[in-house]
Design goal:
Layout (H helix, E strand, L loop, with lengths): L2 E7 L6 H13 L4 E6 L14 H11 L6 E3 L12 H11 L4 E7 H6 L6 H7 L1 E5 L6 H15 L3 E4 L8 H9 L10 H10 L4
Parallel strand pairs: 1-2, 1-4, 2-3, 4-5, 5-6
Helix pairs in contact: 2-8, 3-5
Length: 200
């Protein structure tokens, strides 16, 4: 059976930490492909200043252009309405019925998943995979994981992988301060940011 994962995120911008997580998931879960899914209009970030979806998509596209096991989808950014994870999963599971689907996201999303629309449907449509992030203890993550598993009768995979201390928030902050960020992301992404003057 083909095994594919959707890696959801704002990717504003994509950086080496995202690529590190994707590779760890690829090998640990024995996946055939990971599809990066830049969020379109996520309901939990409506009041935040997010870079135009097409630019975030282009940055992901150029970051993974030489990676055979990675792909990027514009499904969510092409939606006119709010982007809900359950709709994205419905679309892809219907598109490839024989594929085993995974959904990769950070533990912060696990902590908030009960506030997501159609939580149980999400967990029924895929194997939900979360990676650790700074600021969350493994004990609290595992406690929440067990709680959701019991409530929704579905298994959740926790990827306890070494973290690269890189975040999109800090990258945007560094750029605004005039600091170098070329060591934090692929060169092609840096080029787009510099050419368009993003995050200044």
């Amino acid at each position: 059976m083909i095994k594919k994962a959707i890696f959801g995120g704002t990717f504003d911008p994509i950086h080496n930490g995202h690529l590190h997580i994707a590779y760890e998931a690829l090998y640990k879960l024995n996946l055939d492909k990971i599809i990066f899914m830049p969020s379109g209009n996520p309901p939990h970030k409506l009041n935040k200043n997010i870079t135009e979806a097409f630019l975030r998509y282009e940055m992901v596209k150029t970051a993974i252009r030489n990676e055979d096991n990675f792909d990027v989808s514009d499904y969510e950014i092409n939606r006119d309405n709010l982007s809900y994870t359950y709709q994205t999963l419905e679309h892809f599971t219907n598109l490839e019925k024989e594929t085993k689907w995974y959904f990769i996201t950070g533990v912060d999303c696990l902590m908030d998943i009960e506030n997501w629309k159609n939580t149980e449907e999400i967990l029924n449509l895929c194997t939900f995979v979360v990676f650790n992030r700074t600021g969350y203890s493994i004990e609290s993550v595992l406690k929440k994981k067990i709680s959701i598993e019991k409530k929704c009768n579905n298994k959740i995979v926790f990827l306890d992988i070494p973290l690269l201390e890189i975040s999109s928030t800090n990258i945007r902050k560094h750029i605004k301060e005039g600091r170098k960020v070329s060591h934090l992301m692929p060169e092609s992404v840096c080029y787009i940011i510099e050419q368009l003057g993003l995050y200044k």
